[in-house]
Amino acid sequence: MEQIKPKKLYIDWYLIGSITFLALFGLVMIYSASFVQGYEHYNNITHFFDRQLQWLIISSFLFIFFMFFPYRHYRKLSPFIVGGSFLLLLLILIPGVGYEVNGATRWINIAGFTLQPSEFVKIGSIIYLAYVYSRKQAYINKFFTGVMPPLIVVIVFFFLIMMQPDLGTATSIVLVAGLIAFCSGARMIHLISLGSLATWALYHYANSAPYRLNRLLGHRNPFELEQTDGFQLVQSYIAIAHGGVSGAGLGQSVQKLFYLPEAHTDFILAIISEELGLLGIAAVFFVMFFIIGRGVLIGARCRDTFGSLLAFGLVFQLAIQMIFNAGAVNGILPITGIPFPFLSYGGSSLMITFISMGILANISRKTERERQESSYDDEIKEEYNEIIGSASASYSK
């Protein structure tokens, strides 16, 4: 009998290849969108490119580490991850520790690098929810004992992040929590009730101050608010219109010449659209949808409830971040300051995205290895049954 050896090492090259393409493409576009600002403010056209490259190198090593770190260990680490997330959010509130940019205190400055704690909370809350809901499967249909207790932690995270303030990140964490609860098997009536309550609370929060309401509704009539809350969106429209189908050419953007604020961060898609046109945007979304589809497939194939919920949560966070950013750039959604995954300038966002994808790659490795071992066992059993059958037939003769 020929021995069939199962493969001991599996690497999801489809996932890695897609991530690598977007990260390198993002590096090129960050240089194109920021070299004018780099020269103007730092007398160095590669200032933003160099810093993003440093973060990309660090993120790549972290991706490799988390790709080989067994995801099941996060069960035991979950309490420490949640506690660390709370501490990071509380550190921002300490005077002198929190770092303020454009009126928002969302960062911590460490040795010249700024870290955004809410980015770490994104992944921390996903790990926590996947762990808790995987243990509550027996009574997930009960609201007060199954669905609600884990969400209390998410609500606390939400209010701490709103104090920075950061509505976009806080909302994305709540949405991902709801989607993880849905995948866990929570009853739809419970989720609809919680969603309605969250919408009501958000409306009253926005309505409590005119500037908040203008920020949320400014995308509806940007040309009427062109000199105030609608200015950024109008400039984004101009960039998209200038690019057309094929674009003005790489490096040929006009809006990045101090017309479009945050051109290399939150509005990198507008610059891509201006320079590479609709075709460039289509290529970006094709790769993003491939990564999201790959993540959903990984979660569906995983036989471990915790691993499945963890994979779904990570890919949901990626998808929501993409939708929020793209929606803001074209005026469908309010501008919330959410960066586009892999493309926007920002070390914390890039690092957490790579860590998330590293965990997803580890789930893929573990799932595929189990499938290969199961297939190997089935083949061994089949060959064993054939041998026994042949021996029985010979003996009966």
Report on this model:
With 397 residues, this protein is mainly alpha-helical. The protein has twelve helices and three strands. It has a three-stranded antiparallel beta sheet. Strand 1 and strand 2 form a beta hairpin.
Give the SSE string.
HHHEEEHHHHHHHHH
Q: Cα distance, first to last residue? A: 23 Å
Number of strands: 3
Mean pLDDT: 85
- Based on Cα principal axes, name the global outline: globular
Count the helices. How many?
12
Largest sheet descriptor: 3 strands, antiparallel
Strand content: under 5%
SSE-based structural type: mainly alpha
Helical residue percent band? over 70%
Rg over C-alpha atoms, rounded to the nearest angstrom: 24 Å
Low-confidence stretches: none
> What is the number of domains?
1
Blueprint (SSEs and pairs):
Blueprint (H helix, E strand, L loop, with lengths): L12 H30 L4 H22 L5 H19 L5 E4 L2 E7 L2 E3 L1 H19 L7 H20 L4 H18 L3 H20 L2 H8 L13 H13 L24 H34 L3 H25 L17 H50 L1
Antiparallel strand pairs: 1-2, 2-3
Helix pairs in contact: 1-2, 1-10, 2-12, 3-4, 4-5, 4-6, 4-11, 4-12, 5-6, 6-11, 9-10, 10-11, 10-12, 11-12
